[in-house]
Amino acid sequence: MASGAPLDVQRIRADFPILSRQVNGHTLTYLDNAATSQKPTQVIQSLVDYYERYNSNVHRGVHTLSIEATEAYEDARGKVQRFINAPSPESIIWTRNTSESLNLVAYTWAEANVGAGDEIVTTAMEHHSDIVPWQQLAYRKGATLKIIRETETGRLDMEQAAEFITERTKIVAATHMSNVLGTVNDVKALADAVHRVGGVMLVDGAQSVPHMPVDVQALDCDFMAFSAHKMLGPTGIGVLYGKPEILEVMPPWMFGGDMILEVTFEDASWNDLPYRFEAGTPNIADAIATGAAVDYLAELGMDRVWAHEQQITAYALDKFKDLNGITLLGPREVEDKGAVISFSHDSVHSHDLGTALDQLGIAIRTGHHCAMPLVRSHGIISAARASFYIYNTEAEVDILVDGLNEAEEYFSKAGIL
Ligand code: 7TS
User: Fold this and answer.
1) What is the pLDDT of residue 284?
2) Which of 227, 240, 341 to mutate to test the pocket of ligand 1 (most atoms within 8 A of CB)?
3) Is 370 one of the annotated active-site residues of the chain?
4) For a tag on the chain, would you pick the N or C end, based on fewer CB atoms within 10 A?
5) Between 3.30.70.3550, 3.40.640.10, 3.60.15.10, 3.30.200.20, what CATH number should domain 44-298 receive?
6) Which residues line ligand 1 (CB under 6 A)?
7) CA–CA distance, 400 with 410 (Å, rounded to integer)
8) Given a cut of 70, is residue 417 above it in pLDDT?
9) Across the chain, how many H-helices and E-strands are there?
């Protein structure tokens, strides 16, 4: 496809069988992509191919099926490596999801390197999976957790970040893009700051890697975590990228098959990277299908994916200005903002809005979005969220806005407003 040209959304939509599904008598309008994306036929078919043609265990067979499965599994690792411009395939570790990737760092690198009196810096915009592991680590070690606040315009307070990152900081763990506010954070600046004091930078890329060009070497992060299911891939598989020199000296976490070099009854030694962190039979089928998802996105071009999402978000932000009773969370313009629009209604609970929209076949997320401290800091306990992806159209934004108007009318007629 020509670089720079807009995405051919209708052609993309034809690759996603689920998008023609009817929900409550309406064609599905799927706007819950920050929770999980839909899957194109190419990804679904790669799973079918694996199970129908070469299902076999990896790294242990001399037979044809095992050799084919091993090649496809490692090939997928190489695709992910190139997708985020990691320096080597060994720096890509397969995990179950972003949460497991973050916990891996907390239980290995941080367990070995964070001690009493040390500081861990994170942000007010984190998903629970990038807060709770650090709270637990701080309890275990007697370390302190510092939280960089959100500014009034929904961005990270970088002045506070500069104050918080000190000689005592061992790790900064920050999301690249907030799943609630959509804010894109300057993680490169955070990486530079923590490197100046000898600490490491962990980026939660769950919402950035699926939506924008991400280059881990340009960002100079030490770790990056993300999930395949948010980027057209299957559930049950995620990635931890780590700088090879850090992974090389990082202690293993889970012990068992595939991660060892040699075992006696008394002792064991560890396999090379990345297998040292992949104990047991891995999620072979889903790793291969992640490779298919990455192929799909790379073919579109991540700069074009980002441009499409910026356009649809700008359109939605503009349309939302005309809605009654709605308060937006996060930046009000697309600068530093991805395709996520969270909002609350003055008098209708977000769950009621979500249920009313579901009656129209519109899928949005409601609740605390696994970011309870963030949502509560806005003085609410629940928000509604529409999040867009490559197959969403401006017409679907119109359907959402009409749906919200309809819901508002319904609730006011019912005497609830
Ligand atoms: N980090 C961020 C920024 C996320 O948005 C999510 C999931 C995670 C971590 C955890 O990913 P997982 O694959 O391990 O579950 N976010 C959401 C969401 O916004 N709605 O449902 C899941």
Assistant:
1) 98
2) 227
3) yes
4) N
5) 3.40.640.10
6) 34-35, 97-99, 127, 129-130, 175, 179, 204, 206-207, 227, 365, 369-370
7) 15
8) no
9) 15, 17
